[in-house]
Design goal:
Blueprint lengths: L2 H15 L6 H21 L16 E3 L5 E8 L2 E2 L3 E4 L4 E6 L7 E3 L3 E2 L8 E5 L4 E7 L6 E6 L1
Parallel strand pairs: 2-5, 4-10
Antiparallel strand pairs: 1-2, 2-3, 5-8, 6-7, 6-9, 9-10
């Protein structure tokens, strides 16, 4: 579903119901406004750090009172918010599913999450230094790397 087309269709229906024809200029203006808004969002989004933390680690690092770093990775549109994370031994990653599809996060050769439904999270604390691969068990192209030192 294309939101631009839906807006244009809605405006056209309102005009038609009122017995008016939708002017081409109005349609073109609506499309232009939507295109400009999308381009502006795409250009500005990488420069706005809404969540604080380190953008290289998904932009959502936190530290709890004991000094453990917590990196939040979101799952949305069949993708991880970040695919390369660097941590220290004892730090953890929190994966949160933000889409309607279920996901299983697997840390290859180590463990796997239960099924994560929309809104559910799963944490894993890395207790040994090394390089770990994580992936989604249902969507094999969804993968990333965690480097623990």
């Amino acid at each position: 579903m294309n939101p631009v087309k839906e807006v244009v269709k809605l405006k056209a229906r309102k005009h038609k119901a009122a017995g008016k024809k939708t002017p081409k200029k109005m349609i073109n203006a609506l499309i232009a406004i939507c295109v400009i808004a999308v381009i502006a969002a795409l250009v500005l989004a990488p420069s706005i750090n809404l969540f604080g933390g380190n953008p290289e680690n998904g932009g959502q690092n936190q530290q709890n009172q004991s000094g453990v770093q917590i990196v939040s990775i979101t799952i949305n549109n069949k993708a991880y918010s970040t695919t390369a994370v660097s941590l220290s031994v004892g730090d953890l990653i929190k994966w949160t599913n933000q889409e309607s599809l279920r996901h299983f996060v697997q840390i290859v050769g180590v463990t796997a999450s239960p099924a994560l439904q929309n809104g559910q999270s799963w944490n894993y604390t890395f207790s040994t230094a090394g390089v770990y691969q994580f992936r989604d068990m249902d969507w094999p192209y969804m993968k990333g790397t965690v480097t623990v030192s």
